[in-house]
Amino acid sequence: MESNLKLSKDIKMVISDFDGVFTDGSFLLDENLNQQKRVNFIDIMGVSILLKKGIIFGIISGETTNILEYFREKFGIEEIHKGIRQKGIVLSSLMEKYNMNADEVLYIGDDINDIAAFECVKYKIAPKNANPIIKVMQGVQVTNAEGGSGAFREMVDCLISCNVQGNI
What is the pTM of this model? Predict the structure, then answer.
């Protein structure tokens, strides 16, 4: 999929929301009130690609889903933060921990609880089906794909190969 994202070769860390990015933001609820979420393998492969390229990856989620443990175990991701309400504070602490500035970090999220995290970084990405408030924020770039349908992978593919420039 062709992408219009403009990213920098200087990005060294990608931090993502989970629901609305790796999922379409919905869930199935059965009679016993058990939740199930659909995650697209093409997006999961994007995590593998990032890590193989040496880019630090983490997830900051307001949810506490055990699906995040799958990512931790499958990829050995240290930076999985669940049940987070203050995403900007967590992202700032990660930037400090890894000695990164705003030009070296990309955040991808889809809703108003991601605003504080967006404010920490230069590269802000939202899936096509993100909340309209997010999509019109200054500096936010919108993917062609929707969350849960390849938006994360579109960002990864672009970061690795397309429209990648020096400092923009």
Answer: 0.92
